[in-house]
Amino acid sequence: MASSLLQSSLLLSKFSSAAAAAASSSSSSSSLPCVNIPTGLTVQRLNNSKRSVVLRATGIEKALNDLPGDVEKVMDNVEEALTPISEVKVKLLSIVAGLNKGLTANPEDMENADVAAKELEAAGGMVDISENQEKLQGRWKLVYSSGFSSKTLGGSRPGPPIGRLLPITLGQVFQRIDVFSKDFDNIVELQLGAPWPLPPIEATATLEHKFELTGSAKLKIVFEKTTVKTGGNLSQLPLLEVPRIPDAFRPSSRTGSGEFEITYLDADTRITRGDRGELRVFVKA
Which residues, if any, are the signal sequence (predicted)? Predict the structure, then answer.
């Protein structure tokens, strides 16, 4: 907290003389003196018993709406608001880095990831890709999914349970998006256990979808098919298409389609929140 006070004093020193003038005239004048600071912030000394400081910063709702009674709290808000987006992004990626895509996350880890994601979403502002879908183009690597805490490949999405039907080790997970063909593929690398002394079977499952933009940053995906390609010693085997379960036998919660919103997007990082509450963080592969 001492460092916050030091930072506060340094910032306040830029306009201390004007603030003093405001304080001396507050009892006899109803006008509010105003000082412009190079950072773009505007500070006003209110005429009340608490002598509160109002910090107004364009695009920073927290600093705009919070009227604390002490300068120290205000300066903490300013410090947070002025933190570069790159630092907020590094914070999020550091939190999720050791969670194995979310598979090892406990409730506290999930809460920390969600809070950090919200900070980055707030710093990045509203996402609008309606005129520039090319930002989605390419191959994205999944680094965190809150849905994996349910121990299924798709979180609350359709997916075989891990360790029930077969001993499955989950490898890397990717999304491959082609904005021109509207292809949206989830690619999952797997290792399937085999009886001793046979080695594990390496395979890559591709869940193929088509997507459409339903809002400025909302996408709807519709499942088409699943293919599996074996690797390692079985790499010569042909591509296998997994038969689709007839709709009549498919649970209503597993239709294979879904919607999600892109809540943060830049050249190398993407955050999405799904219609079933999943938080997912991707980096450009």
Answer: 1-20
